[in-house]
Design a protein that fits this description.
The longest helix has 16 residues, at 48-63. The chain has a two-stranded parallel sheet. It is built from seven helices and two strands. With 151 residues, the protein is mainly alpha-helical.
Amino acid sequence: MIELFHDYTSPASAVAVLRAQRLADEGLPVVFEGVESVGVDAVLPVTLDVLSEMESLREAAAQLGLTLRRPNGLPPTALAHALGHWAEQSGLGASWRQTCYRAFWEQGADIAVPAVLRALALRAGLDGMEAEDVLGDRDRIRRVRLRTAAL
């Protein structure tokens, strides 16, 4: 079994998730665990490390069908991961991951904003009212951060 820890603001995660999803689609057991790599409730500027990582992974991402564009910032991702965990339980984890990664890297979506995340949840095939409940559940966000801290 493969257990993949990922964060939506990491270009390496974007490539790894797309590769691992192909393995999962072929029937291999893959568990996707969302972790908030930044861990603060503020949008941080894009670092030189992220830019360098983007450049080194641009071709690999393109081969997997993802365009890595420079993001406006690195937002907190606990809400997105809370939705991702719920999407997994709902059988739509792959759809959510693809939707969220594409929205962040290709469209510059601010994945820390609840209204944006709710729209992405709908695009991924998730129920909008249930997404609202997840986004309002502070305990889910706390669990994402506890899981991240435990690593």
